[in-house]
């Protein structure tokens, strides 16, 4: 146990938690407006690919982060069009988008790098600027939701959209803006994954971190500070399983691989009983009487 929780393990926990935390913060913004974005994993994949290709082309990981942010915003615009404007089923749309993103990013990546050909590594950022970005995003999301009138309107769109509409606010515009903003953060999270210490893009590089971020939003009861705390818990479990895989044991390594996800699910089960789900989450808003 003394060799498990070392400074190296804690540093690895922070590194592994960074993309999950940023993605979860983006989803908090989106879901507080009443939109359930199950396309988070796919958006992270597009952000990761955009960040990798931009960094490879320019040599600057900061440009890569900007590319990931832009790719995420583009994904958010498409999802907002489908889920808010067209009012397609949010669960089906999000799942379909994630499946599409997995295939599309693999195809685009293999246009340049065939199977078996190792892709080149890119210039990467150290953990310090990445941690600063997480803290800045956390403070910005917290301030938006708790200290601004825009945050109150955003929360009203998720809790009582009819009341917000009666006060003159365009619920569809608020939800679309929240979807684009939240997806932009998800794209940034994907770019931070590859432009950070990893410095590499591989197929399905997010490895389910988008789904973990979705679960952590429920675990956090849609509060940004708790979402980051949940991401740190996931990162710690992920770092621990990496350390445990290197120890002599008869336990199959697949058990260690599942450890962080099992802990996340258990935490979600405990917190979900006291969940404060936005009342209109995943419910399309139609102005006027229903026809």
Mean model confidence by pLDDT = 87
Largest sheet: none
Low-confidence runs:
none
Helix content: over 70%
CATH homologous superfamily identity = ABC transporter involved in vitamin B12 uptake, BtuC
Number of DSSP strand runs: 0
CATH architectural grouping: Orthogonal Bundle
InterPro entries: ABC_transp_permease
Membrane topology: Multi-pass membrane protein
Main location: membrane
Keywords: Cell membrane, Membrane, Transmembrane, Transmembrane helix
SSE diagram, text form:
Blueprint: H1 7-32, H2 40-58, H3 61-85, H4 90-110, H5 127-147, H6 149-159, H7 161-166, H8 171-198, H9 209-219, H10 224-245, H11 253-272
Helix pairs in contact: 1-5, 1-8, 1-9, 1-10, 2-3, 2-4, 2-8, 2-9, 3-8, 5-6, 6-8, 9-10, 9-11, 10-11
Description:
The chain has 291 residues and is mostly helical. 72% of the residues lie in helices and 0% in strands. The chain has a single domain (7-272), classed as Orthogonal Bundle (ABC transporter involved in vitamin B12 uptake, BtuC), CATH 1.10.3470.10. It is built from eleven helices and no strands. Helix 1 crosses helix 9 (209-219), helix 9 crosses helix 10 and helix 9 (209-219) packs parallel to helix 11. The longest helix is centred in the middle third of the chain and has 28 residues, at 171-198. The radius of gyration is 19 Å and the shape is globular. The mean pLDDT is 87. It is a multi-pass membrane protein.
List keywords for this structure.
single chain, ABC transporter involved in vitamin B12 uptake, BtuC, mainly alpha, 11 helices, about 290 residues, ABC transporter permease, membrane, ABC_transp_permease, cell membrane
